Amino acid sequence: MLGVGVSLINMSMALERLDRWIADRERQYVSVCTVHTVMECRRHDDLRRIVNAAGMTTPDGMPLVWLSRLGGHRFVSRVYGPDLMIAAMQTGHRHFFYGGREEVAPRLAAAMRRKFPGVRIAGTLTPPVGSAEELCNPETAALINQTAPDIVWVGVSSPKQEFWMACMRPLLTAPVLIGVGAAFDFHSGTQRQAPAWMQRAGLEWLFRLVHEPRRLWRRYLVDNPWFLFELARQRLGLKKYPL
Predict the structure, then answer these.
(1) DSSP class of residue 127?
(2) What backbone phi and psi angles, to 5 degrees, belong to 120?
(3) Cβ contacts of 162 within 8 Å, gap of 6 or more
(4) Which residues on adjacent β-strands are paired with residue 30?
(5) H helix or E strand, kind and range, residue 59
(6) Are 55 and 13 in contact (CB under 8 A)?
(7) Has domain 11-235 been given CATH number 1.10.287?
(8) What are the extents of the domains in the chain?
């Protein structure tokens, strides 16, 4: 879609792929993809290369699911970052939480332990303020590696988390890195999540816009209409968007 390759998967397929990577100790990273991600990739070629190099680029936004189904892939369903985290907590893997503001990652770990007794949380780390390049360093890698996680969950907002995962991938021994952004805030109770019916209807953007208008207005009121415009040009054959 507009030069971004979105994986044709559903939740069970995503979990199977994670299990396989962990069993084989295959080092991969996962980008959860929304309309905003696609539009950021249109603006930044380096980000597009990172997203397209991911082992899995999940259809996190409902518009991407609907477009996949219109293309004949009826089995595709939403692989939403917060839902993927909850599903993966029940697999027996070791998890590490990297990201969030102060105390969010420890609160997330505590929430997961309450919800899933026996879940294996290897550790948490709240990064200082800085760019993805500044936060990508051997010292951070050593702190995470010594806990021996299977999955490192990254919650430092998009697209910063994609740049961080691509930079840290060679340094980390964990098989899987997954950037899930706001899932840290949702599951730690720091921020309200849209009701399930709004998520199913593709209206989560409206819920988030109402609650964070100053931060998100450009993402939803500019990117969403522009995505539709560019998509129409692609579908009509007026412009090509190579991967």
Answers:
(1) P
(2) -100, 100
(3) 31, 47, 50, 51, 54, 179
(4) 56, 178
(5) strand 56-59
(6) no
(7) no
(8) 11-235
- Judge residue 31's burial from the number of C-beta atoms within 10 Å of its C-beta, 0-12 exposed, 13-18 middle, 19 or more buried: buried
- Please enumerate in sequence order all residues whose Cβ is within 8 A of that of 135, keeping only pairs 6 or more positions apart, or say none: 127, 128, 156, 164
CA angle 126, 130, 134 (to 5 degrees): 100
Nearest partner of 84 among 148, 30, 149, 26, judged by Cα: 30
Summarize pLDDT for 32-52 with one digit per residue, the tens: 999 999 999 999 999 999 999
| Residue of 171, 183, 177, 108 whose CA lies nearest to 136 | 171
DSSP per residue, 78-122: ---HHHHHHHHTTS--EEEEEESSTTHHHHHHHHHHHHSTT-EEE
Distance (Å, whole) CA 217 – CA 208: 10
- Is the Cβ–Cβ distance between 16 and 164 less than 8 Å? no
- Interval 137-177: pLDDT, tens: 999 999 999 999 999 999 998 899 999 999 999 999 999 99
Tokens for 204, please give them.
């989560």
Q: Quick one: tokens of 77?
A: 């369903």
Q: Which two tokens stand for residue 124?
A: 């948490």
Give the containing element (helix H, strand E) for 179.
strand 176-179
Q: By three-state DSSP, how is residue 33 classified?
A: strand
Which pLDDT score is estimated for 214? 83
pTM of the predicted model, to two decimals? 0.92
Nearest to 37 by CA among 77, 2, 85: 2
The span from the CA of 169 to the CA of 182, in Å, is: 21
DSSP-derived letter for residue 239 is S
